[in-house]
Amino acid sequence: MVINKAHRETRQRKAILDFLRKTRSHPTADRIYDSVRKVIPSISKGTVYRNLQVLIERGKVAVLDIRGTLSRYEIRQDAHYHFRCEACGRIVDLDLPVDPGLDGRIAERTGFVVSGHQTEFRGWCANCRRPSQNTQEEAWP
């Protein structure tokens, strides 16, 4: 019996998954490489990229392709929204209910077949917010 390398659980894939399980951030491939290299010093950046692709294809890792940023990766697979700070680039998961009927409403209006959606909220995190933006009232004239 021949085992496809893409389906084997390698040390490199395990290290990538372990790192993603332990982080609440949405790291870039370079950040994953820097962290995994501490565990596997001989790992190459190419190996990290190839293994991320395999993990995406296997449904174990999701990629966030958010406009204006490098691809980010996460292990969370359930439907959820994200918030991106426009100043520092930090991305956080929003634990808000996802609108399950949105895909159907869009399909009905456009005639398209909707395979899913990704919603990103943008603004400034608490660390980057300017003093004049401390409250909603001050942010809106």
Q: Keyphrases for this structure?
A:
single chain, 141 residues, Arc Repressor Mutant, subunit A, Dna Ligase, domain 1, 2 domains, two-stranded antiparallel ribbon, 5 helices, globular, disordered C terminus
Supply the CATH superfamily name of the largest domain: Winged helix-like DNA-binding domain superfamily/Winged helix DNA-binding domain
Overall 3D shape = globular
* CATH topology category name of the largest domain: Arc Repressor Mutant, subunit A
Category from helices, strands and their pairing:
alpha+beta
From the alpha carbons, calculate the radius of gyration and give it in angstroms: 19 Å
- Unreliable sequence segments: 137-141
CATH class of the largest domain: Mainly Alpha
Structural notes for this entry:
With 141 residues, the chain is of the alpha+beta class. Helix content is 35%, strand content 13%. The strands form 2 sheets. Strands 4-3-5 form a 3-stranded mixed β-sheet, with no helix packed on it. Strands 1-2 form a two-stranded antiparallel ribbon. The N and C termini lie far apart (69 Å). Mean pLDDT is 85; it is low at 137-141.
Question: Concise description?
Answer:
This protein is an alpha+beta fold.
Write the layout of secondary structure elements.
Blueprint: H1 11-22, H2 29-39, H3 45-57, E1 62-64, E2 72-74, E3 81-85, E4 91-94, H4 102-110, E5 120-123, H5 136-139
Parallel strand pairs: 3-5
Antiparallel strand pairs: 1-2, 3-4
